Automatic annotation (TrEMBL):
Protein name stated in the entry: Aldehyde dehydrogenase 1
Cited InterPro entries: Ald_DH/histidinol_DH, Ald_DH_C, Ald_DH_CS_CYS, Ald_DH_CS_GLU, Ald_DH_N, Aldehyde_DH_dom
Catalytic residues of the enzyme: 293
Family as reported in the entry's similarity comment: Belongs to the aldehyde dehydrogenase family.
Signal sequence annotation: none
């Protein structure tokens, strides 16, 4: 996942590159098309949340969070750094070492988490509006997908809290052995800007279920929903100090969490480059365990026997959902030669009805990129693709006169060694390529440093099974894409990281396994 501070080394296309008239598909601004943003939510929480209270940063500093529709400032948010992280960790440590949260039964923790889910659900409209405003998500999708998933994740792990079990061991001598699964302690959770609320709960929920306390560092681009969710946790009865939120920047607040000697585990979602820094910080501090969900360059493979309409639909969703700001985006689309020409034509025709514009407009499919840096980064990759000789099938330029909108861009005549086919772009850019055989598809799908996800469309069960077993990725979706579920483990391999979000496996990163052994004398059996 891309980071604002990460440089891609490519040309950044600036505002001067905007098209005066970006053509069909761009509906910029409100109903009048004049660029006036629609109604936005009130911003109520902009301070750090530490030990159950909203407080200013110790330095008194603040930073701007901007509306990606216009580039205008939404609010100034407290800029936490090392001193604030120290206070948050101290509160989390006190809540873990002496507070009630880890000492509750699992069912009691589950009841509080279920109440938290109810409170979030009651405030769904406000949360969705914050996600749309701060991250540029279409409001309808934020309400149906993001908020719905937040509530579902929280309820899933509320149900998991009393199902954390150890094992009874069959020892080889006159000993009795069993294992305990204990909460690790204070968890540092660093979450990204593309799904701010979902990723908040993907990290926080299993940590709470395990009995940990947490310090959350949301992305500086999208801090508003995390602060709102911290407020809701207080309403739900989560004890003070259990959830703390420190807004700020990666090199200061994020680094302070990663290096902190009293943080027991760090879970991070973001770029591979920052993931390396977090592992380095762990090695240089207290060797805390680290879980990393990082970048991807996922293949989406369409075979000759595929349902053409379904394949095109999945390819579009797999690339352009959330304006391409998704680590699992199926941005390398491989289409078998027998269906390729029909697929390309169908894809181009379908994209004519795709609408880019104000995310508060219900007619819009795609909102703006999250901020100016990401906007320029994506445009830089588009220019790189053109320079390398790829052909623009659709899009290829900015959209509208204001804000961070980009036309959904599809490249053809893409070669595997092109930069646009190798590097994670994290924007609305698809690379369309042709292949001949199953063997070629496997080799090219695996020809990446990443291993997060993959998708394929075929009616042949033998091909599906072979591909699913051959592609080196954390998840393979057959005849579907983005088929994520709180019951299904999610996480990558290779340079996409390690450790799982979602499912009971997500608990593992917040639990330590302890063995307990006692001698047994005079037992009638062993």
């Amino acid at each position: 996942m891309a980071s604002e501070s990460e440089s891609n080394g490519h040309h950044h296309a600036g505002d001067e590159a905007r098209a005066e008239n970006s053509g069909a598909g761009c509906r910029h601004g409100g109903d009048d098309g004049g660029g006036t943003p629609r109604t936005t939510p009130e911003i109520r929480y902009t301070k750090l949340f530490i030990n159950g209270r909203f407080v200013d940063a110790a330095s008194g500093k603040t930073f701007e969070t901007r509306d990606p529709r216009t580039g205008d400032v939404i609010a100034r948010v407290a800029e936490g750094d090392k001193e604030d992280v120290d206070l948050a960790v101290k509160a989390a440590r006190e809540a873990f070492d002496h507070g009630e949260w880890p000492r509750m039964s699992g069912s009691e923790r589950g009841r509080v988490m279920a109440k938290y889910a109810e409170v979030v659900e009651r405030h769904a409209d406000e949360l969705a509006a914050l996600e749309s405003l701060d991250a540029g998500k279409p409001l309808a999708a934020a309400r149906a997908v993001d908020v719905g998933e937040c509530v579902g994740i929280l309820r899933y792990f509320a149900g998991a809290a009393d199902k954390i079990h150890g094992e009874t061991l069959k020892m080889s001598r006159q000993l009795q052995g069993y294992t305990l699964r204990e909460p690790l302690g204070v968890a540092g959770l660093i979450v990204p800007w593309n799904f701010p609320a979902i990723m908040f709960f993907s990290k926080v929920s299993p940590a709470l279920a395990a009995g940990c306390t947490v310090v959350v560092k949301p992305a500086e681009q999208t801090p508003l929903s995390a602060l709102f969710l911290a407020h809701l946790s207080k309403q739900a009865g989560v004890p003070d100090g259990v959830i703390n939120v420190v807004t700020g920047f990666g090199p200061t607040a994020g680094a302070a969490i990663s290096y902190h000697m009293d943080v027991d585990v760090v879970a991070f979602t973001g770029s591979t480059e920052v993931g390396r820094l977090i592992m380095e910080a762990s090695a240089k501090s207290n060797l805390k365990p680290v879980a990393l969900e990082l970048g991807g360059k996922s293949p989406f493979i369409v075979f000759d026997d595929a349902d053409l309409d379904k394949a095109v639909e999945l390819a579009i969703g797999g690339n352009f959902f959330n304006k391409g700001e998704a680590c699992v985006a199926g941005s390398r689309v491989f289409v078998q030669e027998g269906i390729y020409d029909r697929f390309e034509q169908k894809l181009a025709d379908t994209m004519k009805s795709w609408v880019v514009g104000d995310p508060f407009d219900p007619r819009v499919n795609q909102g703006p990129q999250v901020d100016k840096a990401q906007y320029e980064r994506v445009l830089g990759y588009i220019e790189q693709g053109k320079a390398e000789g790829a052909t623009v099938l659709t899009g290829g330029k900015p959209c509208g006169k204001k804000g961070y909108y980009i036309e959904p861009t599809i490249f053809t005549n893409v070669k595997d060694d092109m930069v646009i086919a190798r590097e994670e772009i994290f924007g609305p850019v698809m690379c369309l390529m042709k292949f001949k055989t199953v063997e070629e598809a496997i080799e090219r799908a695996n020809g990446t440093r990443y291993g997060l996800a993959a998708g394929l469309v075929t009616r042949d069960i033998d091909v599906a099974n072979r591909m699913a077993r051959s592609i080196r990725a954390g998840v393979v979706w057959v005849n579907c894409y983005f088929a994520m579920d709180r019951s299904c483990p999610f996480g990558g391999r290779k340079m996409s990281g390690f450790g799982k979000d979602d499912s009971m496996h997500a608990l593992d990163k917040f639990l330590a396994v302890k063995s307990v052994v006692t001698p047994v004398h005079g037992s009638p059996w062993f």
